[in-house]
Amino acid sequence: MGTVFIFICIILVASILQSSTGFGFSIMATPFLLMLFQPQEAIQINIILSLIISVALILKIRHDIDMFLLKRIILGSIVGVPIGIFIFMSMNIHALKLGVSILLLLLTLLLICNFKVKATPIRDYIVGGISGVLTTSIGMPGPPLLLYFTGTDTEKGKLRATTLAFYLFIYFISLITQIIFTGTSKHIWQSSLYAIPIVFIGLFIGQIIFKWINQRVFRIFTYILLICTGLFLLIESLSSLV
Known about the structure:
By secondary structure, the chain is mainly α. It has 10 helices and no strands. The mean pLDDT is 83. It has one domain (2-241). InterPro entries: TM_pro_TauE-like, TSUP. Keywords: Cell membrane, Membrane, Transmembrane, Transmembrane helix, Transport.
């Protein structure tokens, strides 16, 4: 019963973050789902629910999508997807999470110190590629996009819409790739089905919150989310490696 309650809380909070910011679900949900499920199960549940969220929200915010940016990060991610699935099947997942956590914390520190990045087409492709790698390896495409968009001072509406549109593509491709190369299970799909009502409650709450967040608060909230995720991944990966 305690596990079910924790699962509901994870999905609800992550859904609220996704709807209000455009990037919170995988960053929030994946590390904590890994506490309740095996890596393959946690990643696929995250991908399935994130795909549902993207479908539910995309029509309402489609006018804010930066189509040129979206095309570049999608093309970059196509290269990253097969690399990510190879990593997932061959590399120690805890070692990968350790590396991601350290990189996440270092880059977040740079952003807090007002480090800025100039957006270029090449960097758009690179960020898309890294997101593709992280989606199929650990189910978290959000951190590189979030770091990049925050560093380039992307307006919050465009950030939310463009990332959601990208998730619609990358999660679909990643789910198919995961099923083909690693399989799936009835437990994964049942858990995802049970979580859907909680997801829609979270989306409703998140839409209300989004209207009240200004750009400055949005940026501070982004830093807090990145730091908490990085620290959690660091602690969890170190404890698993010991």
